[in-house]
Design the sequence.
């Protein structure tokens, strides 16, 4: 390969977790650098200019939220957060200050690699080469003509439904917090009207999913937000 | 005099009535004695003045009755000792009759005026004293930190100022009025019915007939700004109920002072309790999160390391691969159990605050099926939702736990390949959700026991689990003011049904008609 391998910094205080995260990512073809504390992590990130940061939210020195803020001041490398269940508030906060995705502990290697891959791909894709045509399942969204078809049939979407779908598609694979989606689709004054978001996501699922009760593309991240997964 | 406080500048007020009259007589006699040698030098008119002066002094110092008595006595003595012929009540000069009448009239009028003034002065002094005592009580009450102190201060006030005894009655946890602990040495008898009426109605109750029996005669509610805090029962110490009843207004002032003090002490206690509670809750929550971190960290490492073994390169041998898969599965199960235990601990510690939102129920149904993933691989899940289910207000994360636990149970206790059904509909103002499987059903007769911690359907079951799942479901559903019950279906299989109250969902405004843009219907 002519392209240099992607660089990943893993910030995690538990040595054994760090170890298997490292081996999994190395199998993905990444160069991995480890850090056990938040301070060390920032230092390492500054030095290595990573393409991805894997960050444990429960670090012994200072919290991960501050790490993300600090890092976002000079880098837009994707950040994958590791956090325990029942800490939804931390996850939302992390996403709101600039994290890109999260994994709930405990997690398997497969999940970790898939998330890392998605984040790295999104970073590489950049702006150019993005096609105006998004295809998932039997649904086709032509962003340039604003036409949505399902199995060849045109699907009628209201302007808000289309805008919501657009925001989700633009952030493929990424968890979008409810607040973020509300702001993007309904405007800054609507960030408290969660139920609108719920109802419109429901509409989209009715129109685009095979089984709206068990969606495969427009996924709920309970307590956090939504994610579009092609 | 009922008012017991000493009037500092009047030593005569302590005298009994007969002593006063004797003193008045003595003063008249002394005036006669002083005037007798002066007769040679003074006109009789001036002697009269001396007697008038004496009457005035008596009126000022001894009160009205002795003054009137002295007025008559003075006239008599003047006539007897000074008016010629002396030492007889005979009067030769008719003009002296006028002198007597005028003298009597002047003596009576001045005596009356002076005694009136005296009485007013006395009253204002005692009024001032009582007011001061009330102020002192208010001051003492403002420093009181316990209900016992409030009771003691109130009792002291009543003893000192109104010569009465009192007991403060406060409602206990059950609402029964109990004497405040500090005043139990008081032997005051209380008629609980009157106290209860005064407390419930917030009006004073008096019952003068009780006075002889030693019962409290007056029951004043302690009306504080927030609510009636208790009752103060008052009884006169000397058995003279009239004074008490005359002083109703003052007593009510005292009662409201005591009431405010009781309420203040109550809020001080509430504040202290809240603070203690906050400290202990913070402690509990920090212990919980420390335990949860300490338990999850090695489990995360275990799951991840075992998982990385299964995909390691070069691939493991068959036996080693099977072992590593088994290790991963066991570690995942252990993680699930620990998660359940921690959830239960959190729910029991009251640490969980519901983050309720208006949601369609299918949101969490879908996400929990997705979350369970592999565990449901062998069971198709059929979801049947009634049309147009309204939004329901619940905590998505917690209700997702309920679905996860129910689905996990259903998968665990039914043969592979058998479907799991989720049915949701509205019924009697609730959203009713039923999760049923095609297994053997519950073995227990009483379904309520299933929802207790560590109860399992079959004690000796080969199935893994500690019986926390349903207990957690029950705790979560109850926190949402819902109900949960388990039953066996007629066609076989277990069915757990839970309900969530429907409430009043927020309205969704219709979208403005779509503009003419690219996508057409």
Sequence:
């Amino acid at each position: 390969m002519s392209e240099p391998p992607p660089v990943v910094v893993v910030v995690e205080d538990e040595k054994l977790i760090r170890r298997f995260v490292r081996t999994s990512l190395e199998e993905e073809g990444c160069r991995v650098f480890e850090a056990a504390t938040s301070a060390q992590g920032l230092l390492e990130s500054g030095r290595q200019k990573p393409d991805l940061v894997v960050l444990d939210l429960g670090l012994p020195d200072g919290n991960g939220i501050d790490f993300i803020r600090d890092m976002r001041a000079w880098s837009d490398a994707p950040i994958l957060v590791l956090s325990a269940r029942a800490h939804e508030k931390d996850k939302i906060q992390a996403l709101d200050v600039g994290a890109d995705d999260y994994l709930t502990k405990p997690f398997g290697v497969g999940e970790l690699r898939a998330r890392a891959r998605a984040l790295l791909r999104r970073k590489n894709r950049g702006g150019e080469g993005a096609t105006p045509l998004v295809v998932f399942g039997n649904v086709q969204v032509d962003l340039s003509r604003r036409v949505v078809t399902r199995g060849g049939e045109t699907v009628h979407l209201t302007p808000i439904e289309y805008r919501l779908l657009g925001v989700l598609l633009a952030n493929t694979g990424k968890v979008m917090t409810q607040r973020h989606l509300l702001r993007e689709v309904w405007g800054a004054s609507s960030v408290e009207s969660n139920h609108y978001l719920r109802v419109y996501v429901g509409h989209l699922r009715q129109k685009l999913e095979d089984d709206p009760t068990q969606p495969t593309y427009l996924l709920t991240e309970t307590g956090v937000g939504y994610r579009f997964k092609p | 005099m009922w008012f017991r406080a000493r009037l500092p500048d009047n030593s005569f007020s302590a005298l009994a009535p007969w002593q006063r009259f004797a003193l008045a007589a003595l003063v008249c006699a002394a005036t006669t004695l002083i005037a007798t040698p002066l007769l040679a030098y003074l006109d009789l008119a001036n002697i009269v003045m001396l007697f008038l002066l004496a009457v005035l002094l008596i009126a000022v110092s001894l009160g009205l009755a002795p003054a009137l008595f002295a007025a008559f006595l003075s006239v008599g003595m003047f006539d007897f000792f000074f008016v010629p012929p002396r030492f007889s009540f005979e009067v030769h000069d008719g003009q002296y009759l006028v002198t007597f009448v005028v003298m009597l009239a002047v003596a009576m009028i001045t005596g009356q005026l002076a005694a009136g003034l005296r009485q007013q002065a006395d009253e204002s002094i005692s009024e001032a004293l009582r007011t001061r005592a009330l102020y002192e009580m208010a001051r003492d009450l403002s420093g009181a930190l316990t209900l016992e102190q409030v009771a003691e201060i109130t009792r002291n006030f009543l003893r000192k100022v109104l010569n009465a005894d009192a007991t403060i009655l406060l409602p206990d946890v059950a609402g029964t009025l109990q004497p405040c602990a500090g005043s139990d040495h008081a032997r005051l008898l209380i008629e609980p019915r009157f106290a209860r009426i005064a407390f419930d109605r917030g009006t004073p109750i008096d019952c003068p007939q009780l006075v002889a029996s030693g019962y409290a005669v007056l029951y004043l509610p302690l009306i504080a700004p927030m609510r009636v805090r208790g009752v103060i029962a008052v009884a006169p110490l000397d058995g003279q109920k009239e004074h008490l009843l005359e002083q109703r207004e003052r007593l009510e002032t005292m009662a409201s002072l005591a009431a405010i003090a009781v309420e203040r002490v109550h809020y001080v206690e509430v504040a202290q309790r809240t603070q203690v509670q906050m400290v202990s809750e913070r402690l509990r929550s920090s212990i919980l999160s420390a335990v949860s971190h300490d338990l999850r960290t090695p489990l995360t490492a275990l799951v991840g390391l075992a998982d990385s073994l299964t995909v390691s390169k070069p691939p493991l041998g068959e036996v080693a691969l099977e072992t590593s898969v088994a290790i991963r599965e066991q570690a995942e199960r252990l993680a699930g159990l620990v998660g359940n235990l921690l959830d239960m601990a959190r729910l029991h510690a009251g640490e969980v605050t519901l983050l309720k939102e208006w949601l369609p129920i299918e949101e969490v149904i879908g996400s929990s099926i997705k979350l369970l993933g592999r565990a449901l691989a062998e069971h198709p899940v059929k979801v049947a939702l009634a049309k147009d289910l309204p939004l329901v207000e619940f905590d998505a994360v917690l209700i997702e736990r309920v679905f996860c636990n129910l689905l996990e149970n259903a998968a665990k206790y039914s043969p592979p390949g058998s479907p799991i059904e989720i049915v949701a509909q509205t019924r009697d103002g609730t959203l009713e959700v039923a999760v049923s499987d095609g297994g053997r059903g519950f073995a227990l007769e009483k379904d309520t026991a299933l929802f207790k911690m560590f109860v399992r359907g079959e004690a000796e079951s080969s199935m893994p689990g500690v019986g926390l799942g349903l207990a957690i479901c029950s705790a979560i559903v109850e926190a949402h003011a819902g109900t949960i019950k388990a039953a066996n279906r007629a066609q076989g299989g277990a069915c757990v049904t839970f309900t969530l109250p429907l409430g009043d969902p927020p309205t969704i405004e219709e979208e403005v008609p779509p503009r003419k843009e690219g996508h057409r219907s």
